[in-house]
Here is the input.
Amino acid sequence: MKHYRLTPAFSMLELVFVIVILGIVASIGSEMIVKVYESYIVQRAEHRATLKTELAATQIANRLSSAIPGTVYRIRNDDNYESIEADLVGTDGDNYKGLQWVGSDTDSFSAEATPGWSGFCDINVSTKTSLSTPGSNLNLADEIIDNLSDDTKDIGDAVIYFPEDNTPHHIASGTGETITLDNNASRIVEHYKLAWSSYALMVDPTDGHLYLYYNFTPDPAVALNDNTPRSLLMENVSTFKFKGAGRTIRFKICKQEPISEDVNITACKEKAVF
Here is the structure.
């Protein structure tokens, strides 16, 4: 008589149960992996957008901090200019596309222990066309302006601004500690600021990027043109708004960081410049 030994094995029903359980576990695990990856992508985009917005806002604030009072203007969508202190036209600044100002030459002012221009005028020995500015090295200012403007400008293209006066007094020459003006100044006072360029911030509607315009005439509200030099400040800007009160300028800038073709992360930053 033959004896058969029964070997334990999975029944078909048990195999089905195992396959179902493994499928459930796999689906839960894949969902968790997808969610973790999506969270990482979102956090990375938020970090990038926040960091880039903060850097751009800091650069804007640093530039605006050197703006000469009375020379800051808003550029309207119709290309007209109005003072930053004027009441906003329209709703929440939607009728404006840019901000423009004349910036004092902080580079040659702080380049060396003896500044390119000291900002002080000895009115006892100065005239309305010849300013004595003790503590200046105007030859240094001339060299720095020449280098920063790519050899297109020198101190003869710079202007002088006196406090409470937004009239640019154009310089004919500047050597040593003496500035010679093109025309008689209406009045001279102890303090002045030297400027060789205006600056502007504008979002280009063709690509949505924010550009800094520079190296153009240091007179208030000079119209920009296609030949005005510019540099890219930040990409994918969704909002750039600004307003002024007294000598305070507030601005808000928002940037979009794309995650996919249909999804963007937006980060915003607001600053006030005194």
Summary: The chain has three helices and 14 strands. The first strand starts at residue 73 and ends at 76. The CA atoms of residues 116 and 262 lie 52 Å apart.
